[in-house]
Amino acid sequence: MLPNALTIALIGLAQSMVIVKNLRSDTNQPINADKEVFAQGIANTLGAFFSSFAGSGSFNRTAVNQSLGSKTPLAGILSAVMVFLLILFFSPLLSYVPMAVIAGTLMLVGIGMIKPQEIARLFSWTGELSVFFVTLFSIVFLGLQSGLIVAFILSVIMFVLSASKLEITIKQVKESVQIRVEGHLFYASIDQLSGLLKRHRHENVLLDLSVVSYMDLSATEAIAKDLQKRKPKETTFVIVLTSQKLLEHFELRLEGMPVQFIQHLRTQ
Questions:
Q1: Which one of 10-14, 46-50, 144-148, 261-265 scores highest in mean pLDDT?
Q2: Measured between alpha carbons, how far is 179 from 206 in angstroms, rounded to an integer?
Q3: Which of 145, 146, 161, 186 could in theory staple to 216 by disulfide, Cβ–Cβ 3.0 to 4.6 A?
């Protein structure tokens, strides 16, 4: 049951996030996505004890409410009450509604949510465009569950590839080499920095990490290995940081090694 449960959870999460994105762009409402996901998780967790279906945000209801001018959660509450009353008192009559009518209504709502301008915008982003087309064809030819799995894996791969690219600037400042790093320092990107440190092992190095937003243990270990192979009496190694947390982490890991720290507070 786990693959099916995971698929349902991913569909619900993706649907809610897309709805949040559309509402933000169309209505400029300050919507908190974290609260939406948290509420959805609580509702589905509690609903499981009462034999409920998994629930999430609805493209169809949101589009209809938006087209009718609804602006507050009261519309959803009134809609739920009306559905309850219809099921309670008119369920025999509802069984005579042709499925073609319901399908046609859903198709009209779905077609209205397709935005060609959004798709056209993807052509300027090769990575996003590839994810879009692979997801589309995977769902059409492999099925919804397989398509979502393929899309999820491809999205993770694309994210890792984009996050692993570092922007490194090298300057010769007097008798030292200044290496400024921009990006995320983690296992997928550290080799680029390690190669540079090795190349300048016999020079004074000022490593500027003031704009690095994320760093994992492998980055610290790579810098520690470079320091172990340096000759402290011949060269100096200085690290520039802005984050107090990263500074404490480095001081703990590189204690006793030939390194100096400079903490610059980031100004707005």
A1: 46-50
A2: 6
A3: 186
Phi, psi of 236 (to 5 degrees): -120, 155
Query: One-letter amino acid identity for 174?
Result: K
- Amino acid making up residue 258: P
Query: Would the pLDDT of 267 be above 60?
Result: no
Rounded distance, CA 239 to CA 212, Å?
Answer: 12
- CA quadruple 44, 48, 51, 54: dihedral positive or negative? positive
Structure tokens at 179: 């290496």
Max CA distance (Å), the chain = 90
Q: What is the residue whose two structure tokens read 């999460």?
A: 13
Question: Which two structure tokens, joined as six digits, stand for 33?
Answer: 């996505």
Task: Name the residue among 33, 136, 113 with its Cα closest to residue 65.
Answer: 113
Cα 234-180-171 angle, rounded to 5 deg: 65
Q: How far is CA 142 from CA 8, 44, 56, 114, 127, in A?
A: 16, 27, 24, 22, 21
Backbone angles phi, psi at 112, to 5 degrees: -65, -20
Structure tokens at 263: 């903490």
Locate 203 and state its tokens: 């020079």
Give 160-210 pLDDT, tens digit per residue: 877 778 888 888 877 888 899 888 888 888 888 888 888 888 888 888 888
Confidence of residue 60 (pLDDT cuts 50, 70, 90): low
d(CA 109, CA 106): 5
The answer to whether 192 touches 217, Cβ cutoff 8 Å, is no
Contact in structure between 29 and 23 (CB atoms under 8 Å) = yes
Angle at 65 between CA 62 and CA 69, to 5 degrees: 135
Model-wide pTM > 0.85: no
